[in-house]
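Minutes, project check-in
Item: structure for the 398-residue chain
Input as provided by the requester:
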Amino acid sequence: MSATRGRLLVVDDDLVQRVLISKIGAKLGYESVVVPSYEAATDLLSREAFDIMALDLSLGERDGVELLRFVADRDLRAMSIVIISGCDDRVMKATRRVVAGLKLLLGGCLTKPLDLNRLRCAFDLPQRSPLAARSAETPPRITPDRIARGLADGEFFVEFQPKIALGTGKVVGAEALARWRTAEFGMVSPMVFIPIAEQTGLIREVTDCILSSAMSQGRKLIERNPGFTIAVNISGSLMSDLALPERIEAILRQANVPPSSLTVEITETTAMADVDRANDILVRLRLKKIGTAIDDFGTGYSSLAALARLPFSELKIDQSFIKGCEADDDMMKIVDASVALAKAFNMKVVAEGVESSQALEIIRRAGCDVAQGYYFAPSLRRSRAERWISDRNALTDQ
């Protein structure tokens, strides 16, 4: 049979297994190449391109994780990788996380003895999502002057992602997400413009603009829905600015909304960079009745210290844990522990990145209070957000 599906590289130090895997690949239409070691694989990958690689984690003196690092270092991210191992379940789950951390394309993770049907399914090449393809594109070259002009010309705005109370199903708040639309670049990601603004001293102006936009545009949502809160991310570089609470208070007065309608979200690593200053700022925000949320909880190195030392009112479990807990018991344990810690500190628990009914049921059982994510709604412009929230809350009242 002539190859029609691309090239398959089989890396396995077991002769019988690599011959078996290569034969299955050949029957599915791949041009199969087999190698017995890390050294042979790296030599081949340095010279030739492959569409898919079947990799046994145990390769004698060198292991498969080293080869995964080599693949990442060479930026061979278009190649799908099928992991094969006789290791226990926890090692396999951890290997999945290694692949994800290296931003490689995982086609499957199979245990020995091999299930040949699962192997065939894994060899059906997964395709990168349009989102992943877009994220791989070269970002536009944004200058500080262009950001300043965008601020002056009113190009920055916000979209609102609804937050749902799990007990009632009602929309009880929204996260305001920064957006920037330009004539020459189209939509510019916050992942592009926020770091530039931080490095060049423009982050205060960008933050004030986004915060002002969020509260003025969200005023109707606050007025129509008692107890409604709007969450806004605050850059880490501002957490040493002792004038921040007063500036936020002035923006709230100008927008004519009560302080209790705002929650500022701060990442744990940011909060712990200068604990004394962060504590000063957070205490004054709480005294002004402004909510404070620890964002991306669990992704830094100081989660427990941040909870114990800083006066947060809300804990947001990072979406990587929410997405991972559907198929990973270890992730589920982290979610359970995070909820228990938050309750011990009398904090509200928000789960972000909820994208399926299964994830919703898991976080509901775990005891989360509020959820947000694509399962409910993406981020929405103000008029659409107002209609969506009104319709959703009307249904829950019936």
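Outcome recorded: Residues 154 and 209 are 9 Å apart (CA to CA).
No further action items on this chain.
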